[in-house]
Structure formats: structure tokens, C-alpha cells
Sequence to fold (180 residues):
Amino acid sequence: SNGESKGWSSIWGLQVPSKLKIFTWRLARHSLPTSDVLHHRNMSPSHVCALCGADDNWRHSLLDCNYARCVWALSNEDMVQHMCMQRDEQAKRWLFLMSESLPQEEFTTMIVTLWAIWAARRKAIYEDIFQSPMETNLFIQSYLSDIYALDKPSNNTRGQPMVRPTCWISPPDGFLKINV
Fold:
């Protein structure tokens, strides 16, 4: 449908690194490995959240779990209120609705925040590394400023020559070069 095509276009057109677009695509396709998905695939004995014990799903992990709520509490209040008013249980419809109803910059902030919450949850659950909500929020702010800095042309005000990427130089005879 046209609405679905527009929704996918808004996700793939985001000015974020590919890993965030893929995260968002997986969220929309209901393939993030939340406890309910893992349990349904017989990959986990339980369908409850490993952090708080409540029934787990995409919405719980990214919006409703206490950890997620603490991170969202540090975000733009109007954006968060708007997100929480939309109670659609299907992630794809919810994401498409958010992409239509939020300004582009807020939608980008929302996606980066969802991804950062997911990453922090995974570290806590699988690596026993617990970030405070404030640490996660500071990471989000830093990540967003990096994204927006990449968007803008660089300010080379000192009249210094622009640094060009180095071209590949072949190794001397008898040597092997491996670029990593």
C-alpha cells in the first residue's frame, strides 16, 4: 500500500548509520530477540523480561520497562507523551505512525533512543554491564550530535588545506599488504 511504502521510505531515508536502520527494520518486522520472540521460537524457556520479570515484548523492552522509562524520562517530554499515547501493539504500524506524526529530528531522536535502550538492555542481560539511564542518555546526546555534525559541511575557518583520504600505495617487492 502507499502508506506502507511511505513508512518504509521514512525509515530507510533516515540520516542515521545503517545499523540503526536495520535495528528499526527488525523492530518493524517483529524480529528483535525480545523474550517473547525467543520463547515463541523455542530459544528461551521464558517470555518474561530478564530485567524486571514482566511479560516481555518490543513495547515493554523499549518503552514500558522501568529501565526504558527512566531513559525516556530524560528525553523531550512532548515527544515521549506523543509516543506513549499511541498504544498500537504492532511495532510496524506504531513506527510508521511516529514517522508521519513527529518532526524528522524528533523521529531520528526517537530511533536513536530506542536503539540505545536496546543496546543497554542487551549489555545488562548478556554481559552484566549495567549503564545508568543518565549514561545512556549522555550516549544518545553524543551520538545525535555526531550524526548532525556529519550532516553539516565542515567549518574549515583557519584556511588549512583539507585533508584528502590517502590513496592506496602498493607494498615494496617481496612484501604483502593487508588492509584491515
Observations:
- Confidence is low (pLDDT under 50) at residues 159-165.
- The chain is about 60% helix and 0% strand.
